[in-house]
Specification:
heterodimer, A: mainly alpha, MetI-like fold, B: alpha/beta, Rossmann fold, three-stranded antiparallel sheet, 9 strands, about 35% helix, binds adenosine-5'-triphosphate, binds magnesium ion
Chain lengths: ~280, ~260
């Protein structure tokens, strides 16, 4: 009979020992946003607010009740002033944003694509970008008068600079290998801009929309508070001067709604234009 | 069409990537470029297709491009270079859109290459929905839709897993054989080189020079046959012995780029 070959000492056979379960331990850190929870929370806040107002904890002079705000809003609707104020504000913001962003888009593209535009443009833009554009409103009023053009111009200016930067960054970030691919297939320059640079920069351009629309909203209200008879900003300021807090809060609520509508439109645009992602 | 590389050298600033390379790619052949990492294979391929201007030397073509050729020197890219916002069909179409063809002719050509590369069912999928192998099939379809005279491939399979690589290599061999495509194929993989090449050009480490041209004498369709196994193994060893020391030295260099 052969000698048993010496082997490495083996661990005791697992049978007979108590088995232990490996517990799941990688939970958490995966937040997700629900659909119903926000509405319930919103309702609770409104209800609490209303209760605080009704019971007198919140003095109406400092903070009107939701019901009072709703009534003030409704008053504005029926008297027609709401629509007029919104009309002025929307017109200013739309024109200002359109002018500022289309010019910004054009220059951002030029700076993203041409050395000359980049070397001239970048320092100028960098120098002017940090200036809070509302500081230019007095100057713009001197140029254009107190009417609509000065307000539109201040919004356009405020939108223009960040827009150049985000467009330029987006164009600069279009993968070089895609452009080289198109060049190697002999695709003409114009078609490369249309078919590769523009769609490639689209995510950055749309991200720029988000930033510039919120800047436009801020400048709108600021400009309307400084020198306007109509518009949501002027309306809020007038209400404050008369201590009509219900009107004031109604105006603020309007701004929130305006912002939400803009965000909704942008979200839709993003889903549609970036459906390939 | 022949593609003639005439004493081409290239430097990137201080770094000399290629030094006096002359070679002729003959009509109908597959020339494989191998060499250690950083020896200038991609640089040479870029110069061959006219997307990189050489510091010295020139590239010439001789003879006529095939019937219906739209882009004589056409690339297949290692990273596929597909437009993520276009479908498979749109990506292939890109290569035709700026040529004066009727819409019907374009669609017919695209449908034909999608069929050839097995992509017909994926025509309206976006690149992100595809596996790596399928993406490279799109890259190949886009290249052959223009009926190139010379196909330039820079490690087209190196981003793929081993099985996909095997499958795609078989398909490429079938397409090459059918279309008699002239091609220049860069790879690190000696097995790929021996399967695909008519001739293998071995480059030395940087600055890349021609070290040896190795003919693969066995006709491509017969390379799987057992009676050629010994010969192919010998070629593999020959290539490896040419590359081995170069690769070891190249590996130990300090990178400048
Ligand atoms: N754009 C560039 N600027 C500067 N140096 C570069 C550039 N492109 C390549 N090089 C350098 O030139 C040399 C050759 O590069 P190339 O990409 O042609 O090598 P390769 O043989 O294709 O390498 P790999 O096998 O890694 O793909 C390398 O040393 C690389 O660092
Ligand atoms: Mg390379």
């Amino acid at each position: 009979m052969p000698e048993p070959v010496p082997t490495r000492p083996q661990a005791a056979p697992p049978e007979g020992e108590a088995r232990q379960r490996v517990l799941f331990r990688a939970g958490g850190f995966e937040p997700s946003a629900g659909r119903i929870a926000p509405w319930i929370a919103f309702a609770f806040i409104l209800a609490g607010w209303q209760a605080a107002s009704s019971s007198g904890i919140l003095p109406a002079l400092f903070m009107p009740s939701p019901a009072a705000v709703a009534a003030a809003l409704w008053n504005q609707v029926t008297s027609g002033t709401l629509l007029m104020n919104i009309g002025y504000s929307v017109e200013r913001i739309v024109w200002g944003w359109l002018i500022g962003s289309s010019l910004g888009l054009l220059l951002g593209f030029a700076m993203g694509m041409f050395s000359l535009a980049r070397s001239v443009g970048l320092p100028i833009v960098s120098a002017l970008f940090p200036v809070p554009k509302i500081a230019l409103l007095p100057l713009l009023i001197l140029w254009f008068g107190i009417g609509e053009p000065s307000k539109i111009a201040v919004i356009a200016l405020g939108v223009f600079f960040p827009y150049i930067i985000s467009t330029y960054t987006a164009v600069d970030g279009v993968p070089r290998n895609l452009i080289r691919m198109a060049l190697s297939f002999g695709v003409p320059t114009g078609a490369i801009v249309r078919k590769i640079v523009l769609p490639g920069a689209m995510p950055g351009i749309l991200a720029g929309f988000r930033i510039t629309t919120s800047i436009a909203l801020i400048l709108l209200v600021a400009a309307e508070m400084i020198g306007a008879r109509y518009g949501i900003g002027a309306f809020i300021l007038a209400a404050g001067n008369l201590m009509q807090t219900d009107q004031l809060v109604a105006g603020v609520a309007l701004l929130s709604i305006l912002g939400l509508i803009i965000a909704f439109i942008l979200g839709y645009l993003e889903r549609w234009l970036l459906r390939w992602r | 069409m022949d593609l003639i590389v005439e004493s081409v050298s290239h430097s990137y600033g201080e770094v000399t990537a290629l030094s006096d390379v002359s070679v002729t790619v003959r009509d109908g052949e597959t020339l494989v470029l191998i060499g250690p990492s950083g020896c200038g294979k991609s640089t040479l391929l870029g110069i061959m297709g006219g997307v990189l201007a050489p510091s010295a030397g020139r590239i010439l073509t001789r003879g006529r491009a095939p019937e219906g050729c739209l882009n004589p020197l056409t690339y297949v890219f290692q990273d596929f270079a597909l437009l993520p916002w276009r479908t498979v069909e749109g990506n292939v179409m890109l290569a035709l859109e700026h040529h004066p063809l009727s819409a019907a002719e374009r669609r017919r050509r695209v449908a034909a290459v999608l069929d050839l590369t097995g992509l017909t069912d994926f025509a309206s999928a976006f690149p992100k929905q595809l596996s790596g192998g399928m993406r490279q099939r799109v890259g190949i379809a886009r290249a052959i839709v223009v009926r190139p005279a010379v196909l330039l491939l820079d490690e087209p399979l190196s981003a793929l897993d081993a099985q996909t690589r095997e499958l795609l290599m078989e398909e490429m061999i079938a397409i090459w054989t059918r279309e008699r495509t002239t091609s220049v194929y860069v790879t690190h993989n000696l097995v790929e080189a021996i399967r695909l090449a008519d001739r293998v050009l071995v480059l030395s480490r940087r600055p890349g020079r021609i070290k040896r041209m190795v003919e693969i004498g066995v006709p491509r369709p017969e390379r799987a046959a057992p009676e050629h196994a010994a010969e192919l193994a010998r070629l593999h060893d020959e290539l490896w012995s040419l590359i081995r020391e170069e690769a070891r030295l190249a590996d130990r260099e300090i990178q400048h780029a």
